[in-house]
Amino acid sequence: MAAAVQVFKDNAGAVEAMRHEQSAQKARADAERAAALGAMASSFERDVKGIVDDVSIASGQLREPAELMARIAEDASRKASVIADATVQASSNVQAVSASAEEMAASIGEVSRRVEEAAHIAREASAQNRADAGRWSAAWRHRPTASARSCS
């Protein structure tokens, strides 16, 4: 029985040693896992910081071209406004010239009509003048002479 008690004591000691070893292994595993998680967190943080820095640098590099594009767009908008105003003015000028041309055409037509009328009146006056001249000439030829008047 003493041998059985000794076996139980030895087994209890071995179980205690195994529990102690198991606890130590668990502590080591927890420590290794914590260290691995810490290393992964540090690596992740470094990677994210690198990405954030790269994005920050890229955005800084894009700021100048974006500002330039904004200035170009503003200038283009201003020029488009000037062109639109000039187009409106040119359209107004074209309408004014068109109206003036129509008025000038009407005036030329009226002047042409009056010139034609004046030419017609001049032709009639000339014809009348020739007819009157012919009558005066005939009357002049048939007029009594001074000697014929004294005889009568």
Give a verbal description of the structure:
The chain has 152 residues and is an all-alpha fold. It has one domain (2-136). It is built from two helices and no strands. The termini are far apart. The model has no long low-confidence stretch (mean pLDDT 88).
Over the alpha carbons, how many angstroms does the gyration radius reach? 63 Å
Helix content: over 70%
What string, H for helix and E for strand, traces the elements in order? HH
Distance from first to last alpha carbon:
214 Å
Task: Tell me what portion of residues adopts beta-strand conformation.
Answer: under 5%
Strands, count: 0
Low-confidence stretches: none
Average pLDDT confidence is: 88
Total number of domains: 1
Which structural class matches the secondary elements?
Answer: mainly alpha
**Biggest sheet details:** none
What's the number of helices?
A: 2
Shape: rod-shaped
Could you give the topology of this structure?
Blueprint: H1 2-141, H2 146-151
